[in-house]
Amino acid sequence: MEMNTVTKRSTVLQKDYQLTSLRIFKKGLLYIVLILGAIAMLLPFLWMISTSLKNQGATMVFPPQFIPDHATFQNYKDVTGAFPMLHFLGNSLLVAVLTTLGQLLLCSMAAYAFARMQFWGRDKLFLLYLATMMVPAQVTMIPQFILMKNFGWLDTYQALIVPGLFSVFGTFLLRQAFLSIPKELEEAAFMDGANHFSIFWRVIMPLSKPTLATLGIFSFMQSWNNYLWPLIVINDKSFATLPLGLSLLQGRWETNWNMMMAGVVISVLPILAVYLFAQKYFIQGMTMSGMKE
Amino acid sequence: MVGMTKKKTAFWVAVFLLPNLIGFLTFIVFPLLSSLAISFTNWDLISTMEFVGIDNYKHLIADKEFWAAFTHTITFIIGYLPLVMIFGLACALLLNRKLKLRAFFRAAYFLPVVTSWVAVSLVWKWLFNPSYGLINYFLSFVGIEGLNWLQDESLAMPAIIITSVWKDIGFVMVLFLGGLQNISTSYYEAADIDGANSWKKFWNITLPLLTPTTFFVTIISLINSFQVFDQVMIMTEGGPGGATNVLVQNIYNHAFRYFEMGYASAMSWILFIVIFVITLIQMKMQKRWAD
Fold first, then answer.
1. Which listed site, A46, A236, B44, B166, has its alpha carbon 20 to 30 Å from B82?
2. Residue A170 and residue A114: Cα distance in Å, rounded?
3. Do B111 and A272 touch (CB under 8 A)?
4. Choosing among A169, A283, A286, which should be mutated to test the B contact, i.e. which has the most B CBs within 10 A?
5. Which of B7, B11, B20, B280 should we substitute to test contact with A (largest number of A Cβ atoms within 10 Å)?
6. A38: Cβ contacts below 8 Å, ≥ 6 apart
7. B105 to chain A, minimum CA–CA distance in Å?
């Protein structure tokens, strides 16, 4: 009788033990898959950094060296000295910052009008805004280019900034955010004699900070990474932004992969730094937009 | 008094709306309409514009290069779309549970998404280098040697597909994570009581309830992949021998290399029509799920 319970207990224990070891095995497998995935995602970045620290000879060895024998910053000196990589960086910063700030202001003002003001044809006009969202950029790019040409804006900063200020997506996103703010707050302020501008600036905008941050990060990234538009409107390389500058670098040092990777690192680091600090907003922006570049 | 308020309102509407509206009409609506108009002309930007009716569109239907570009785009989509969806969904499923280092993994998988296409394309061009590239080095372990990736007509498109899948996995993952978080845990609790295993739970709960998300992600990725350009322009410029000449590369060439503005515009409208049809399907399906 007593023997029986002991054996029973031990089989139960054994089963328990088997279950936990199965669970540990599964968990281990999960981590292995995740780590392999992370290696696949990170290896190109590490390879980029490693190559950027090599001299040209070290890039042309087989098997490849993962950690360079003689790490050097010479490539960084060359792409910023003999090549205007820092100038491109400056151009990118200027264009991305002005585009983002301008977009936030222009979109939030229009969004306020659509969300809070009564005027003739408002809903139809907003529908027209929405309808243009499905138009691919390639359709409007040719007439936009001709417009820039007629304005005399080819090879100017205006061409890189102004057409990008009027984001329909941004207007749409902010209108949604403004509509979700209860009206009672403003009604009280109106009673106290506040006008639309102070309501907009003192009530609506501060309450919409998360949406503004999301949109801001998103348009900064879009502007920073944009290639096609600068490619079309910029011929004079003193106005080139980083993506265009990188393609120029490719034309200049086609086979010097160490130089090219140094250029790529310079172009990637700022946006990665912003990403690490504002990860949440990046992910929100991408999710809400459902579109990329 | 009433007149005054009306005037006042009109003033504020003008202040808030006009700056955006003027830009919207100038840089979006006007180009959209003129693009359609230009597509009915022959114009090289220098000589006078010549109205040719629907000649450009007739021409397109007989243009082998255009159909080749269309086919290359479809080839890209057939390779890219299933891979990016499967990997993106797999990452989302793996990272939708409580794990150590979850934040690290999510950040790592999302890293390529924030990097520019030009930077990614250059890095991968280097990885695909036939003599010193890392990919051929790894392949040499399994006895495959000397692949000429971007210079080989049959390998250039697969190389572009691999690069694009790698860059977009994180994007698809994030969209799926959003969908997964909308599935109520009560379904899983009920399944646990019935003793269902994780495979069954995936097929009978997760996948069916994820259908709207899956559909949304498919549509978005489909629309984006019809517009594939940056990676092609940097990695192959449509080569070798036109093997990766996709629709937008073709539009770019005709507009900004041969200055055939009318012909290029007509092509862009074909692209627009394709995307428009996809969007219509999406709207219809979304309505069905909303009901």
1. A46
2. 13
3. yes
4. A283
5. B20
6. B104, B105, B108, B109
7. 6
The 3-state DSSP class for residue B161 equals helix
Decide if B40 contacts B53 (C-beta within 8 A). Answer: yes
Model ipTM value: 0.90
Token pair belonging to A283 = 């992910």
Per-residue pLDDT, A12: 62
The CATH architecture to which B58-290 belongs is Orthogonal Bundle (1.10)
Closest chain B residue by Cα to residue A223 = B116
B127 to chain A, closest Cα gap in Å: 8
Residues of A in contact with B127 (CB under 8 A): 44, 47
Could A286 and B35 be called an inter-chain contact, meaning their C-beta atoms sit closer than 8 Å?
A: no
The 3-class SS string of A69-136 reads CCCCCHHHHHHHHCCCHHHHHHHHHHHHHHHHHHHHHHHHHHHHHHHHCCCCCHHHHHHHHHHHCCCC
**Residue A239 DSSP label:** G
Among B38, B95, B101, the residue with its CB nearest the CB of A142 is B38
Residue B51: strand pairing partners: B41
- pLDDT tens digits for range B72-130: 999 999 999 999 999 999 999 999 888 888 888 988 999 999 999 999 999 999 999 99
Q: What does the domain layout of chain B look like in residue ranges?
A: 2-38, 58-290
In a mutational test of the B interface, the residue from A25, A119, A142 whose CB has the highest number of chain B CBs within 10 Å is A142
User: What is the per-residue pLDDT across A220-260, written as a single tens digit (0 to 9) for each?
Assistant: 999 999 999 999 999 999 999 999 999 998 888 777 899 99
Q: Do A63 and B137 touch (CB under 8 A)?
A: yes
pLDDT given for residue A291 in this prediction = 46
Distance CA B169, CA B30 (A): 36
Looking at residue A8, what is its pLDDT?
A: 62
Q: Do B28 and A135 touch (CB under 8 A)?
A: yes
